[in-house]
């Protein structure tokens, strides 16, 4: 709040400037960052305050935003509600996860022909405080899913240019490995299409409950457009597939709606008749079944071509599978007027009143937030706020609800006496 002061000018007009907004916390997906490890140990990020407005209509500067650089594929969750607030899948994509408060308006804003010297200003709002959990999810077109030692790493190496560790013992792969599969023209010189293929580490029974590294592995599957169940024909493929789908269903039932096929691996180790019989048994799942040998290369061309044909359009798939992102928009609640004849004892959000006092509680409509922004100047701003509340329909709502002259109106921590200005007109 400020008034212009100058020589030979006894009463200058209001010249209070606006306050600056507070700094926000922004997630930013960049290249060159492969993990979230560098954020470990840093538990709190805080944007700086906006500067106060000053006289002569000088506006305060905005607070500095804080950028947190994360890998592409990072998903941010509100730790308290569990809602997704950011899903960064492209380089350069940004998302505000905690917004800085808005700056207040100086008293120059509230000057009018009938209010030439407003002795009040608007306070700024508090910024958001939020607990955020970050997860990194692999971005791949095709995910190889199977139990340990089913041959996923061998299949990845055979189909792409990746070089995963391959050995005859479980959990050779301890983190997802990506490869690229190309489809070239008839001359073999130009790449016509390509997709990324991910070897998702071996799932164990109970992975959806967090056993082993189950959850660490399962969350990477959610981004794949096509799932390939890699089964070892020498074990019990039918039971393995049933158990794999049970784990996926327990983690996220929508994963079973993904396009999928079965790669029946290691067929070189059994008679052809046995491979055909197992293929027939797997028909109950309603998925295409291809018999392959990652070691000898049998069936790999057919598998590669089938994956290209089954691959859904990337943009269409993204729209159909878009995560529900919590909106940044502020949604004003509807106005609710509640009458209390006999006020209950003090409790959460309840103010104790006398037995014979009629109290009306105002909830929603943005009234509590608006009035809090003038708390320091309440007496001087009362007339202005009264006009705002009237224009927003608060008086009409109270009148329709049955409020009478002298009743108490309660908005947040502030209490007012209700006066029906319409009654004087009759």
Automatic annotation (TrEMBL):
InterPro entries: G_OBG, GTP-bd, GTP-bd_Obg/CgtA, GTP-bd_prot_GTP1/OBG_C_sf, GTP1-OBG_CS, GTP1_OBG_dom, GTP1_OBG_dom_sf, OBG_GTPase. Pfam families: DUF1967, GTP1_OBG, MMR_HSR1. Keywords: Cytoplasm, GTP-binding, Hydrolase, Magnesium, Metal-binding, Nucleotide-binding. The keyword GTP-binding applies. GTP binds at residues 146-153, 171-175, 199-202, 265-268, 293-295. It comes from the Bacteria. One of its GO terms (molecular function) is GTPase activity. One of its GO terms (cellular component) is cytoplasm. Residues 1-139 form the Obg domain. It is found in: Cytoplasm. Its EC number is 3.6.5.-. GO terms for biological process: ribosome biogenesis. Mg(2+) binds at residues 153, 173. Belongs to the TRAFAC class OBG-HflX-like GTPase superfamily. OBG GTPase family. NCBIfam families: Obg_CgtA (TIGR02729), Obg_CgtA_exten (TIGR03595), PRK12297.1 (NF008955), PRK12299.1 (NF008956), small_GTP (TIGR00231). This is GTPase Obg. It comes from Deinococcus marmoris. The gene is obg.
């Amino acid at each position: 709040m400020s008034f212009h002061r100058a020589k030979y000018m006894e009463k200058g007009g209001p010249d209070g400037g606006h306050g600056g907004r507070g700094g926000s916390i922004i997630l930013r997906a960049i290249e060159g960052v492969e993990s979230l490890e560098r954020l470990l140990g840093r538990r709190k990020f805080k944007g700086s305050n906006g500067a106060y407005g000053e006289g002569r209509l000088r506006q305060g500067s905005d607070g500095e935003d804080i950028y947190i650089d994360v890998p592409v594929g990072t998903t941010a969750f509100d730790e308290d509600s569990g809602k997704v607030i950011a899903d960064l899948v492209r380089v350069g994509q940004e998302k505000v996860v905690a917004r800085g408060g808005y700056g207040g308006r100086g008293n120059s804003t509230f000057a009018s022909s009938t209010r030439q010297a407003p002795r009040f200003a608007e306070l700024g709002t508090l910024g958001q405080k939020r607990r955020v959990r970050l997860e990194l999810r692999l971005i791949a077109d095709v995910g190889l899913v199977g139990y340990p030692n089913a041959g996923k790493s061998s299949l990845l190496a055979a189909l792409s240019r990746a070089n995963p560790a391959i050995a005859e013992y479980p959990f050779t792969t301890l983190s997802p490995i990506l490869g690229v599969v190309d489809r070239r023209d008839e001359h073999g010189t130009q790449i016509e299409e390509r997709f990324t293929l991910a070897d998702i580490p071996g799932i164990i029974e109970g992975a959806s409950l967090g056993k082993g590294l189950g959850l660490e592995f399962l969350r990477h599957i959610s981004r794949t457009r096509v799932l390939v169940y890699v089964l070892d024909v020498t074990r019990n493929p039918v039971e393995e597939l049933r158990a794999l789908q049970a784990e996926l269903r327990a983690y996220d039932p929508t994963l079973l709606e993904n396009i999928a096929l079965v790669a029946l691996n290691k067929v070189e180790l059994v008679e052809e008749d046995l491979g055909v019989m197992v293929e027939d048994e797997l028909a109950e799942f309603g998925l295409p079944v291809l018999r392959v040998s990652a070691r000898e290369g049998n069936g790999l061309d057919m598998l590669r071509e089938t994956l290209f044909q089954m691959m859904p359009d990337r943009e269409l798939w993204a729209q159909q599978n878009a995560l529900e992102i919590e909106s940044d928009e502020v949604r004003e609640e509807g106005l609710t007027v509640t009458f209390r004849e006999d006020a209950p004892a003090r409790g959460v959000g309840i103010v104790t009143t006398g037995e014979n006092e009629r109290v009306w509680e105002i909830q929603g409509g943005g009234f509590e937030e608006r009035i809090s922004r003038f708390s320091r100047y309440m007496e001087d701003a009362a007339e202005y706020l009264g006009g705002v509340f009237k224009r927003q329909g608060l008086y009409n709502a109270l009148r329709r609800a049955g409020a009478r002259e002298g009743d108490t109106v309660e908005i947040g921590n502030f209490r007012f006496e209700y006066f029906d200005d319409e009654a004087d007109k009759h």
